[in-house]
Amino acid sequence: MLLLALDTATPAVTVALHDGRDVIASSSQVDARRHGELLLPAIDRVLAEAGRKLDAVTGIVAGIGPGPYTGLRVGLMTAETFGLALGVPVHGVCTLDGLAYATDLEGPFVVATDARRKEVYWARYADSRTRVTDPAVDRPADIAEQVEGLPAVGAGALLYPDTFPKAHEPEHVSAAALARLAAEKLAAGGELPSPRPLYLRRPDAQVPKNYKVVTPK
Amino acid sequence: MADSRDEPLVLGIETSCDETGVGIVRGTTLLADAVASSVDEHARFGGVVPEVASRAHLEAMVPTIDRALKEAGVSARDLDGVAVTAGPGLAGALLVGVSAAKAYAYALGKPLYGVNHLASHICVDQLEHGALPEPTMALLVSGGHSSLLLSSDITSDVRPMGATIDDAAGEAFDKIARVLNLGFPGGPVIDRYAREGDPDAIAFPRGLTGPRDPAYDFSFSGLKTAVARWIEAKRAAGEEVPVRDVAASFQEAVVDVLTRKAVRACKDEGVDHLMIGGGVAANSRLRALAQERCEAAGIRLRVPRPKLCTDNGAMVAALGAEMVARNRAASSWDLPADSSLPVTEPHVPGTHGHDHVHEVSKENLYS
Ligand SMILES: [Zn+2]
Questions:
Q1: Please, what is the average pLDDT of chain B?
Q2: Predicted pLDDT at B39
Q3: Would you call A198 an interface residue with chain B, using a CB distance cutoff of 8 Å?
Q4: What string of DSSP letters covers A86-135?
Q5: Phi, psi angle pair for A189, to nearest 5°
Q6: Distance from A34 to chain B by nearest Cα, in Å?
Q7: Minimum distance, in Å, between the CA of residue A79 and any CA atom of chain B
Q8: What's the confidence (pLDDT) of residue B247?
Q9: Is domain B134-304 in CATH 3.30.420.40, yes or no?
Q10: pLDDT at residue B168 is higher than 50
Q11: For chain B, what are the domain ranges?
Q12: Cross-chain Cβ contact A36/B181 below 8 Å
C-alpha cells in the first residue's frame, strides 16, 4: 500500500505519503491564500523525499472539509484528477476527523476550525477515533452549551476562548494524521466516503426581485 | 505542412466562468469539445454566481475530461501537453481548472501550459479556418469582455487596441433582457426578438463615437441606461412596450459600434483580416453587419461557429497546441490562477527551471 494524503480545508497545505506501515514523508505549510500554488510543489517534494514516483501510489486520501471552499476545492480537484489519471481509488476523510485523530485524547472533546464570518466548523468526539455529531457550522456563542466543559482542538477553538476555554493544539489538520487514520480504517476493511466536499452552507447569491422568465417560442 | 501525426496533441481545460470545458486538438484539428454548463443554475439569479460556478466545475471536471477523451478517441498517455486557462476570469472558478490541469499534467508526466483566456478566444479560429493570418485583428465580445486586439503571433504578441470602459457588450444584452423580462442569458433571446423588430424604430445612442472620443474603446453603460429609461417611460405612460423593436434597435446600436470600430482599426493598422470571437459573436446581426462592412472595406472576416465562440476547452487546447508547436516554455507547478491576467501575456511561462518532462521539442510546425 502507498497512500498519498492531502488536505487543503484549513489554512494548512498538507501532504503525506504512507506506505501501509507508517508515514514515510510529509509536508505542511500554513498560508491560507496560496493553496493553489503550494499544493503541487509540495506533493512533488514529498514524493522526491520518499524516493517514490506518483504512479507507485495505490490510493489517494483527501480531506473533504468542512473548510473555506476555495482552498478546499484545490485539494479535492487535485485528488480526483490524480484518481482519474492513475486509475486508483480516491478516499474522502472528514478534515475534522483528521484533527481529532492527531489528539490522542481519551475522553470526549470538540474539534473546531475557523469557518470565517465569526463562525466555526465543529463536531463532538467520544475519543480520537469516534465522532458523535455531524460536522456543523455555527457561531461559537450558539453552541456554548453543547461544548461546555469539553477540551477542544483546532484553530476555531483557539480563536474563541470564551466558548472554548480549554482549547489547545493541534491548530490545523496534518495530512500525516489523515493518512494514518485512512490506513487504519482501510486495513481494518472499513470503507471511506467518496471525496465530495462538505460545504455545509448554501452558496451566497441574491435573487433579483420582480424577476420572471418569459422566453419566446 | 508536416504529417498530422507530428502535430501536437493537447488537452485544454477552461473554467473561467460558468462553462466547464475540456477540448482536445491535434495542431489545428479539433478532436473533441466537451462542455458542461451551469448556466441553468445561474438563470434564476439573473447572472453568474461565482460560488455556484465553482461548485459546478468541481462536480463536472472528471466526467468532462472522460467525455472529451472518448470523443477524441485518444489516450491520455499520447498527449503532448495539458493547457489550462490561467486567467482572466472568476478567481475561484479558474482555480478549479488550474488544480485539475496541474494534477493531470503531473500524473501523466506532461508539460503544463497556463494560457490566457482572451488569446484562446482568438486562437480557436485556427480550428475552423486554419492557421491565423499574421497579423490578425480580433474583436472579442462576450458577457465578460469587449476588446479589440491586434496579434502578430498569438503565442507571444497580443496588443490591446481598445476595450470597453464600463460594461461588456454581453452584460448590456443581459441587462436589457432583464428589463424586458426576457430571462437570462440575454444574448440569444434578444437576437430572436430582434429578428422580428425594426432596428431603426428607436434611435438609441452610439457610445464613444464622437470625433474626440477614443477611436477603439467601447462604452455600453450609457446605452443600457438610455434603453432602460425609454422602456420605463413607455410603461409609466401606460403604453405597451414594443419588445421586438426595442430589442432590434438596442442590438443595432451595439453591433453598429462594434463593427464600425473594428473595421476602422483594421484600416488604420493596414490589417486585412478580422476575427470575431466570444459569446456575442454568436449574434446573428453582428455576424451579418460585420460581413457587410468587411466586404465593403476589402477585409476578410473570420468568425468561428457559435459553439467555438462561447467559452470552451477546445480554444484553450488550440492555444496550448500552438505553444507546443512554437516551443514556448511550459508553466511551473506553482502556476497561479490570475483573475486579472493581462491580455498582453498569452501564456504564463515557468519562472524558474522547469525540470520536468520536455520530450516535446518540435520545430515550429506552422511557419
Ligand atoms: Zn470568454
A1: 93
A2: 83
A3: no
A4: HT--EEEE-HHHHHHHTT---S-EEEEEE-STT-EEEEEEEETTEE-S--
A5: 80, 15
A6: 8
A7: 8
A8: 98
A9: yes
A10: yes
A11: 4-124+312-348, 134-304
A12: no
CA angle A197, A202, A206 (to 5 degrees): 140
Q: Which residues of chain A lie closer than 8 angstroms to B335, CB-CB?
A: 37
Identify whether the C-beta of residue B228 lies closer than 8 Å to the C-beta of residue B237: no
Assigned superfamily of B4-124+312-348: ATPase, nucleotide binding domain (3.30.420.40)
Give the model confidence (pLDDT) of A39-72 as tens digits: 999 999 999 999 999 999 999 999 999 999 999 9
Tell me the nearest-neighbour CA distance from B366 into chain A, angstroms.
Answer: 31
pLDDT at residue B355 above 50?
no
Give the three cell numbers for residue A98: 483528521
CATH fold match for the domains B4-124+312-348 and B134-304: yes
pLDDT tens readout for residues B55-66: 999 999 999 999
Strands A130-131 and A136-138: unpaired
- In chain B, which residues have their Cβ closer than 8 Å to the Cβ of A216? 182, 189, 192-193
Q: In terms of DSSP H, where are the helices of B154-198? A: 169-179, 186-194
- Please, are residues B312 and B306 in contact by the beta-carbon 8 Å criterion? no
Taking an 8 Å cut-off on Cβ atoms, the answer to whether A78 and B100 are in contact is: yes
pTM here is 0.93
- Are B81 and B323 spatial neighbours (Cβ–Cβ below 8 Å)? yes
CB contact under 8 A, A69 and B183: no
At a CB cut-off of 8 Å and minimum separation 6, what does A188 contact? none
pLDDT tens digits for range B36-78:
988 888 877 877 899 999 999 999 999 999 999 999 999 999 9
CB pair distance less than 8 Å for B106 and A54 = yes
How many A from CA of B47 to the centre of ligand 1? 15
Q: What is the mean pLDDT of residues B242-252?
A: 98
pLDDT tens digits for range A68-86: 999 999 999 999 999 999 9
Q: How many residues are given for chain A? A: 217
Of A43, A85, A204, the CB nearest to B51: A204
Please report the residues numbered 150 through 189 in chain A whose beta carbons come closer than 8 angstroms to any beta carbon of chain B.
none
Q: Which residue has the cell 469587449?
A: B146
B62–A80 C-beta distance less than 8 A:
yes
Angle at A143 between CA A142 and CA A148, to 5 degrees: 130
Tell whether the model's pLDDT for residue A211 goes beyond 60: no
Say which of B66, B99, B183 has its CB closest to residue A214: B183
Pairs of CB atoms within 8 A across A/B: 118
